[in-house]
Design goal:
heterodimer; A: 2 domains; flat; B: alpha/beta; six-stranded mixed β-sheet; 19 strands
């Protein structure tokens, strides 16, 4: 059970008192979506650098600790490296095509050259990741899940979907502790789950945990759905939210800021008709 | 006065069943009454409650005849949502029915669905939280609460709708005895202060009667068998006939040959007028005998100075030290979260102690892996669905042998032998999904037994079972213990089980072992009972009030007598069954 609890603490909402935590879930959702869209559209290095610093400042202000996000950050970093390498192998001269110049640094083999343009291009990809990652992580650890459900509802998504998200979060720790209990009991019966067993044996053995887990989860779903119905869930088309927050001055300020920033960023990016900033011409 | 609930010639049949579950029910419950509904599993008592809150026929469909009126409304017209404004239901599963991410949100859930404005919600949540005393916990997540606290939150969640009727479905099932007492107190307070009509469905009769109830309704095979005031019901023999456990002091009085009259107010042992009976009880006590205590045999398991903590400086268990004799039946008791499960996890090797060791027949087993320990110490979990991983009975029982590479022929022989012992042989080719809860429990016990373990640990072996099934499972375990010499350890909240079936009990409170003695001695010791959230047995009060000083001796003798009688009836049943050894014919 404790094991389960510490596992669930990774990347979950942690209550703190910063002005980011005090912001309404809707605001954070809008900010996060807008920020990601800007980050995806622009390849303008100047814009990306400004965004990177803003992200880092926001991250710092949110008082997010490394242990809350460390594991997931390393995970993302791994994919980033994979991405950078694949881009190079599939298209080593992408930078040259984009920037219309070619400055070779070193010849690797066959058609593979390392060029200044390619390095610059891939650096932009890395920058894009780093402008969005802190904001995503910050969004997850500073937004109360039930308030998030309320936010989804407020931007027009059915409350049933919003509640499905909230209830999944509610039962994750329970299912985790069930999982550990079942795993132990099956190990005691002699089913090897450690690395001692061969991979395909382990995979098959996993089934002996998954089945009981599904059955006990189904029992749970039965109870929950009865309990929800008995207390009137789904009675009306709308519902109110205990943990919903009204929009305040800071919320409006944040939304206006992100929209203004987005407009400026787009103007700067597309001023010369291309979404790439080109230092080679 | 006009009844608030009225059943008239009411019959109900589930769509999936051929026979009606409720037959010709005629029942009236008046506003402000507190009514206890008892009956064995499958008697229809839960169905009765579901008819009142509208789950029948809306979530569980079927056909009904006759009429049911609840506060001038017909539930099968009004629907579950409509009924939820009149009837609040607190379900048995304290964990599953907790919907919100925090206490406050869970309490507010019904209001949210009713589109109540936020400030109004804050006000009403605060008010109700005050009533059930969870105000300090409003921001807590369910994982941070105890079972008793979760249940109080559930109560608040239905009270917030200002319902007239509250239905409690087995409110004591998941609680330790002392927490159960508190729950009964709170229900009593709600009834008196808020003038609610209360229906409690529960088979732990004695624990509910800790506070007055107005009436007890006994349901048997879908019919109302009795509808009496508690004093009258306890004086008669209906409970016994219906397979419902009588309060222990009542059973003891009857054992002593007393004929209980309703005028003696037998509802509570402490206020009962015992003067006409005490002479007889004393005589019985002096005449009864106890067999000599079992001689101490060799030690099976020895726990030596075990320390364990998840976070250092915050011990879960400290200096736990005790011995378990071979062929012993031992219970581990204590309040929720005291460390009982941690102890069994340590014995099974799921977690490793920070200090101390565990010896089996004098040999340290700390080097053995979980799998190796599993061959000598078997664990049966509380919920059989958490163990069963194969669709067929044979495969499930064979699993432990198959993964160990035992030859096919030997597996077959051992599985069949085990199934015979467990009375499951006739079902050997059945799918597990066709079995009842009690039968599934037997399958899980069989799947452990097949590996010939020396020790079996059972977590709450009888939770949620009525007296009949309880007796059946416990007699089965006792038989395993006697016939095959298997040492049995049970983790339990059930004081009856501990008193009736175990030779010794280990009491754990706040991570420390505070007692290691016979159950009768522990349950007649007020200090220990209080510290470990146990409930001292009513036999204690009975003995004291009858002027018997040796209270634990009294409890021991009574339990011994009951066991003897039970064994005799069990033997008679087996003789009638045609002396065949196949207990599988008895439908668990």
């Amino acid at each position: 059970m404790r094991e389960g609890m510490s596992m669930s603490r990774l990347l979950t909402y942690a209550e703190k008192d910063t002005w980011i935590h005090r912001l309404c879930g809707v605001t954070k959702l809008i900010f996060f979506l807008a920020w990601s869209v800007i980050g995806m559209l622009t390849y303008d290095t100047r814009v990306l650098i400004v965004m990177l610093f803003t992200s880092l400042i926001i991250f710092k202000v949110s008082k997010t600790e490394w242990r809350q996000v460390g594991t997931i950050f390393k995970f993302i970093l791994f994919f980033l490296c994979l991405n950078v390498i694949t881009v190079f192998f599939f298209s080593p001269l992408e930078g040259t095509t984009i920037y219309g110049a070619r400055t070779d640094i070193v010849h690797l083999f066959g058609n593979y050259w390392i060029t200044k343009e390619q390095i610059f291009y891939e650096m932009n990809i890395v920058l894009k990741y780093f402008t969005v990652i802190p904001v995503v992580l910050m969004f997850i650890v500073t937004t109360n899940p039930s308030e998030f459900a309320a936010s989804l509802n407020r931007i027009g998504i059915s409350y049933k979907i919003g509640y499905a998200v909230a209830i999944a979060l509610r039962y994750i720790p329970d299912v985790q502790s069930d999982f550990i209990k079942i795993k132990h009991a099956q190990e005691a019966r002699g089913i090897e789950m450690s690395s001692k067993a061969k991979f395909h044996v382990r995979l098959r053995n996993m089934a002996t945990i998954i089945f009981p887990l599904i059955f006990s989860s189904m029992e749970r779903i039965d109870v929950v759905s009865n309990a929800m119905e008995l207390r009137g869930f789904g009675k009306y088309k709308k519902r109110t939210w205990y943990s919903g927050k009204p929009l305040k001055r800071n919320d409006y300020f944040t939304i206006v800021f992100v929209l203004l920033f987005g407009s400026v960023a787009m103007i700067v990016t597309f001023y010369d008709g291309s979404r790439f900033y080109n230092p080679f011409r | 006065m006009k009844p608030i609930i009225e059943f008239k010639n009411y019959t109900f049949k589930y769509r999936s069943q051929t026979e009606p579950t409720l037959r010709d029910i005629n029942l009236m419950i008046y506003p402000g009454e507190k009514v206890l509904i008892v009956g064995p599993s499958g008697s229809g008592k839960s169905t009765l409650a579901h008819c009142i809150n509208g789950l029948v026929p809306f979530s569980f469909s079927g056909e009904s005849e006759g009429s049911l009126i609840v506060k001038d409304q017909e539930p099968n017209k009004l629907g579950v949502f409509g009924m939820s404004k009149i009837v609040g239901t607190v379900l048995q599963d304290t964990d599953g029915q907790f919907i919100g991410l925090t206490v406050a949100e869970d309490i507010a859930f019904a209001l949210e669905n009713d589109m109540v404005e936020q400030n109004e919600m804050f006000r009403r949540v605060n008010e109700v939280a005050q009533t059930v005393d969870v105000k300090k916990l409003l921001k807590h997540a369910p994982a941070e609460l105890s079972g008793g606290q979760k249940q109080r939150v559930s109560m608040a969640g239905v009270l917030i709708d200002d319902v007239d009727i509250l239905v409690f479905d087995e409110p004591l099932a998941n609680l330790d005895p002392a927490t159960g007492k508190k729950a009964i107190d709170l229900i009593d307070k709600i009834q008196k202060e808020d003038k609610k009509t209360i229906l409690i469905i529960e088979h732990r009769l004695e624990d509910v009667l800790y506070r007055d109830v107005d009436r007890i309704i006994v349901i048997g095979e879908g019919r109302v068998v009795a509808d009496l005031e508690p004093d009258e019901l306890l004086a008669g023999n209906i409970l016994k006939e219906q397979g419902i456990r009588e309060p222990l002091y009542i059973a003891a009085l009857k054992q002593a040959g007393c004929v209980i009259r309703p005028e003696s107010r037998p509802q509570h042992v402490d206020t009962m007028d015992l003067k006409d009976y005490s002479e007889q009880v004393r005589e019985w006590f002096e005449a009864s005998t106890l067999p000599a205590p079992k001689k101490s045999q060799e030690t099976a398991l020895e726990i030596m100075d075990l320390d364990f903590a998840y976070i250092s400086g915050n011990p879960i268990l400290s200096s736990i030290r005790f011995k378990i004799k071979k062929r012993e039946m031992l219970s581990i008791v204590g309040k929720n979260g005291a460390g009982k499960t941690t102890l069994s996890n340590l014995i099974c090797g799921f977690i490793n102690p920070d200090k101390g060791s565990i010896l089996l027949h004098g040999r340290d087993i700390s080097e053995k892996s979980i799998k190796e320990r599993g061959e000598i110490i078997g664990l049966v979990m509380q919920n059989p669905n958490q163990m069963i991983s194969k669709p067929m009975i044979y495969d499930e029982v064979a699993l432990g042998l198959t993964v160990r590479g035992v030859p096919e022929e030997e597996i077959k022989k051992r599985v069949y032998d085990t199934l015979k012992i467990c009375g499951l042989y006739p079902f050997r080719n059945w799918p597990i999904s066709a079995l009842s809860f009690g039968q599934k429990k037997r399958v899980t016990i069989a799947s452990i037994l097949v590996m010939n373990p020396e020790v079996i640990i059972l977590d709450e072996p009888t939770a949620g079972q009525d007296y009949y099934h309880y007796t059946e499972i416990m007699e089965f375990l006792k038989d395993l213990n006697k016939t095959f010499g298997i040492t049995i350890i049970m983790i339990t909240h059930d004081m009856h089980l501990m008193l009736e079936y175990t030779d010794r009990a280990i009491v754990i409170a706040d991570g420390e072992l505070i007692a290691n003695d016979t159950p009768a001695k522990i349950l007649t010791n007020e200090a220990i009972a209080e510290k470990a959230y146990l409930k001292k047995t009513s036999l204690y009060d009975l003995a004291l009030q009858c002027g018997i000083e040796d209270v634990s001796g009294f409890a021991e003798r009574f339990i011994y007598c009951e066991r003897e009688i039970k064994m005799k009836t069990q033997e008679e049943i087996e003789e009638i069954d045609g002396s065949s050894n196949e207990r599988g014919d008895v439908n668990v």
